[in-house]
Design goal:
Layout lengths: L5 H17 L9 E4 L7 E2 L3 E2 L4 E4 L2 H8 L9 E3 L12
Antiparallel strand pairs: 1-4, 1-5, 2-3
Length: 91
């Protein structure tokens, strides 16, 4: 993304908004964060394991499995995640 030149930045923003309105941009997966302070290394299913009480995942299958677990809401909690400061690679 051309940040230095205001004209290029404005043109890029215009094109991006146009593509977005037409629905031609790729949708990003939603990353969700979970915390399990009581059992810091809890394993749920195949390949889903908390590391030091935290778990970050963007796989929808994992998110559904975690939120359907019997300990969800009692020992496993969803926490808000702010990704506004993380740089994103250009496509």
């Amino acid at each position: 993304m051309p940040f230095a030149d205001p004209k290029k930045r404005r043109a890029y923003n215009t094109q991006y908004k146009r593509r977005r309105r037409q629905g031609k941009t790729k949708s990003t997966r939603q990353i969700k964060a979970y915390i399990c302070p009581h059992i810091p290394f809890l394993r749920i299913g195949h390949g889903v394991q908390f590391e030091n009480a935290f778990l970050l995942t963007d796989r929808i299958e994992d998110q559904v499995m975690i939120e359907a677990h019997t300990r969800f809401g009692k020992h496993i909690f969803k926490i808000s995640l702010d990704l506004s400061g993380i740089p994103v690679a250009n496509e």
